[in-house]
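Subgroup meeting minutes
Present: P.N., E.W., G.H.
Scribe: E.W.

1. P.N. recapped why we're keeping a running log of single-chain structure predictions: easier to compare across weeks, and new members can see raw inputs and outputs side by side.
2. G.H. added today's entry (606 aa).
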Amino acid sequence: MTTEQGVVFAVLAATLALFVWNRLRFDVVAMLALLAIAIAGLLPTEALFAGFGHPAVVTVAAVLVVSQGLVNGGVVDNIAQLLGKVGHRPTLQILTLTGVVALCSGFINNVGALALLMPVAVWMSRESGRSPSLLLMPLAFGSLLGGTMTLIGTPPNIIIASYREGASSFGLFDYAPVGAAITLAGIAFITLVGWRLTPQRGEDSGEDDKLFSVGDYLTELKVPEGSSYAGATLHNLLSDSGEDKDVVVLALIREDKRQLAPSTYKVLKENDLLLVESDTESLQGFLDKTGLELGSQDEDEDESETEEEQTARKSRKKELNEGEVQLTEAVITPESSLVGQTANRLNLRERHGLNIVAVARQGHRLKRRLGDIRFNAGDILLVQGFEDTLTSALSAIGCLPLAERGLRLGSPRKTLLASGIFIASIIAIVSGWLPAPVALVAAAVAMVLAKLIDAPGAYKAIDWSVIVLLAAMIPVGQALETTGGAELIAGQMLALGGGLAPAGVLAMVLVGTMLLSNVVNNAAAAILVAPIALSLSAELGMPSDAILMAVAVGASCAFLTPIGHQSNALVMEPGGYQFGDYWKLGLPLSILVTVVAVPMILLVWG
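Output recorded in log:
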């Protein structure tokens, strides 16, 4: 082993350790690895940042913009609305959900496809009286399977195409024979057997047993005659109560007229009633500080309530979700600006028109003061906002709606326009008229010009953390190759697996990549394993296309952990899953993928 190889291995070991540790963002870890390579002088300066202009990186960015354009045009929602007609049988629900998400994931970003169908899955679960855990893990795994079918389905496929030797990279549908085979086999397994292996927590929960029971925390407060807050704004009232008082104003009642989510600049009058959500301790502190009086309370129903009072309480709770203002549940994504922040510091009411009513973590509503809670990725929020801006407000803060989401169907003209632009780019790629990066960038620009997505929205659609990861890790992978490190590792693998048949070598590479992708980002796994796999194929005289295809499949099929892919992480809290739940379905699915993929790779590429 040379000094340069030792440095590369040390950098890679530290990088993998930091990826697994998961305390630093993966894009930051990738940049640290790039800087270490630069300081060690393992690559010339002009090659260090060439990754930012690499065709694979440009292609990934373009695919993300095109995906958002298709979403804005209503293409995916038109497909998703058909799911409401499949009935309540679990096998039929799972078949249609996984089938639709797999189809969508073949052509748009798989995380985006999952985000669109998660609310549909939660709605279907509740309509059927079942826990969302039954549908969400199959949905996430379906999105991963579908991404294997095309070049643009997932970043690892785009990365692997750039490693192909010869005149051209893999074409758009070169992945389809293997990808479609494992997708069909995977969906069949999940539909017939696999869904029974998912944890079914809280099943048979009815409408009254939702995660958030808002009615248990509602109270009416009255602005008494002579109050100093008569003539003052709601903002003044909330500011004077102090940041440590967790009171959310959901409605203002004046002369029997109810105004939901009132503006914080609304001027209060004597005898106004405020419908607030608060725990008992915070409520008492709020009353002591402001001098407001209790009106009628809407806490837990008890035996002393008359039937009329119970009906009125339930009616008030229902009204919170009607009209222009509604309550909805949303999950915080890993990229959300809320992560690590508290509600008091974010001023969500003033900035986005959102009330955070409650927070749930690991399947349970948090009883602490909202102002004391630092949000984590995966937390589920109960939010109140205006119906026409709620979706855009949640998107602005990095949250995905989980329930009460109406499908945002685009106009027929926009749907046809978005579809036409996308199909034109596909034809240009398949016919060989334009390379994939050029055709997809052209499609992205066309969608901006056609106003399917505006320029700020296009930049926002790009997951810059993934772009930085790819741009930084590509030179690191090149350093592994140019220093001879990849060849050295391949030699050791050859010594360990000496005498293996081609099928055994493919299985070894595929499984090794699959295990790695369960603990590090799948694009990073593809970048690290691809040069090693190419060296191994050269040593054995195997077709390089076959071994690269094994890497692509392995990198995309991270079913064993929630940290292996963002799709897995997104369903963890809404499904109430624990870290150890994933392998129960993921392990047999991984074995099935290996069993199906290896002979298919040999048949098509061997």
